[in-house]
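Anyone up for a design puzzle?
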């Protein structure tokens, strides 16, 4: 799979194609999921527990 992806990248436009065609959609999806999780945490009232310095 990795080799096929490397051949696709090299054959189809190199690193600029990798940035625009692969990383951009992944970045948009990642940012969307981050916003969704933050919104769901706020709606459901979920808060992360902070650990005390003493370990208790």
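Challenge accepted. My sequence:
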């Amino acid at each position: 799979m990795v080799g096929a992806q490397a051949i696709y990248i090299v054959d189809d436009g190199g690193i600029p194609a990798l940035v625009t065609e692969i990383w951009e959609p992944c970045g948009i999806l990642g940012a969307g999921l981050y916003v969704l999780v933050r919104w769901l945490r706020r709606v459901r009232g979920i808060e992360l527990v902070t650990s005390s310095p003493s370990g208790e």
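A detail worth pointing out: The mean pLDDT is 76.
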